[in-house]
Amino acid sequence: MAIGVAIIGAGIFAREEHIPAVGASKDLVLKAIYSRSFNSAKTLVAVTSEVAIYSEDSASGNHYQDLLKRSDIDAVIIALPIKRQPEYIRSALSAGKHVLSEKPITENVSDAVDLIQWYHSNVDSYKITWSVAENFRYLNSFDHARGRIQELGRVLGFRVRMYANVQQGSKYYETQWRKTPTHQGGFLLDGGVHFTAGLRLLLGSENAVTRLSAFTAQLQKHLPPVNTVDATLKTKTGITGTFSVSFGTSLTGSEWTVGCEGGSVSISRSTVTTNINGDKERKDINDERTGVPPEVRHWGEAIVSGKQNERQKSEEALADLELLESMLRSGNSDGEPQDLTRQI
User: Fold this and answer.
1) At how many degrees (to 10) do helices 109-122 and 314-332 cross?
2) Which residue has better confidence, 176 or 274?
3) pLDDT per residue over 65-77, tens digit each?
4) CA neighbor of 132 nearest in space, from 274, 332, 318
């Protein structure tokens, strides 16, 4: 029997990614949608059917806590503004619902540590699972590249370059909480954790980052508080690499490269290039959309099996956040080196 799911949040990602992903999963069935306003929740119902609407401005009996009382809803996907997520996560877990919450895990490392400790102290994690979404962990191109890196021996260096120029009027910019962020880093936090997660996946735990130094800048006035970071990272094996990301530049390009003793592996979009002594092999890898469909599918399968998916554990999301936050902290201190302690 399929697991009843509610989607908490009616934003762009819920509409374009979560609803189709739930619909494509054999283990999940959408039962309800919750949003701050009835009208915003109703926009999601327009793309699906036979689901109940709950909202803050609905009549008594149709609020979030009422949704959590439903016995036919066993799990929730939470996709709210970063600042609001923790209270909704706590309420759902306390009500005995499995949770898949969107990245980043929280606004900052301190809050994430507190929330993880609360979860393990107050919830039976063997029965009720809290998973944190990160769709980069479900991109086939990254899995393929990781496999090639492991085949080529010891890692010697790496670089990440991700450049964009977020314009006023673009769909993600016009969401109010992104437009006027209260969280550190602005777009760098919201989008940057994807890139730290991708880097961690490629390097593996054997090359976990232990120390870094970074500079940050706000290149565009409409993208506060900073929108660009350039960092040098050092791993526990002693190798170094660079991480350059901007959401407000005219520079272009998307590149992830890891150099190994036997050659190098690069990803550009969904193309993986292996370079061995000048002999290049390019493979176009079929990523399943943005990685969200397999992410949600694996979440449903894990609930059915009674065992949490390892890639969705909160500790993984904490490591993604610590890496990004450490860059922001270093940038705020004019490049002062930062030590990392929560990489796994």
Assistant:
1) 160
2) 274
3) 999 999 999 999 9
4) 318
Task: Flag whether pLDDT at 145 surpasses 80.
Answer: yes
Beta strands in 89-150 (DSSP E): 98-101, 130-132
- Report the relative pairing of strands 240-246 and 279-284 from DSSP bridges: unpaired
Sheet holding 155-163, edge to edge: 279-284, 271-276, 263-268, 254-260, 155-163, 240-246, 228-235, 209-217, 338-339
CA pair distance 312, 331, nearest whole angstrom: 29
Task: Please report, as a single letter, which amino acid is at residue 101.
Answer: S
Range with the poorest average pLDDT among 23-32, 48-57, 179-188, 265-274: 48-57
159-192 confidence digits (pLDDT tens): 999 999 999 999 998 988 898 999 999 999 999 9
Q: Which two three-digit tokens encode residue 35? A: 């949003």
Q: Look up residue 343 and give its two tokens.
A: 């990489």
Q: Are 162 and 254 in contact (CB under 8 A)?
A: yes
Q: Report the SS3 class of residue 258.
A: strand
CA 218 to chain centre: 23
| Separation CA 260–CA 153 (nearest Å) | 6
For helices 187-203 and 140-151, angle between their N-to-C axes, nearest 10 degrees: 40
User: What confidence tier does 115 reach under pLDDT thresholds 50, 70, 90?
Assistant: very high
Residue position matching structure tokens 């890196």: 149
Q: What is the CA radius of gyration of the chain?
A: 20
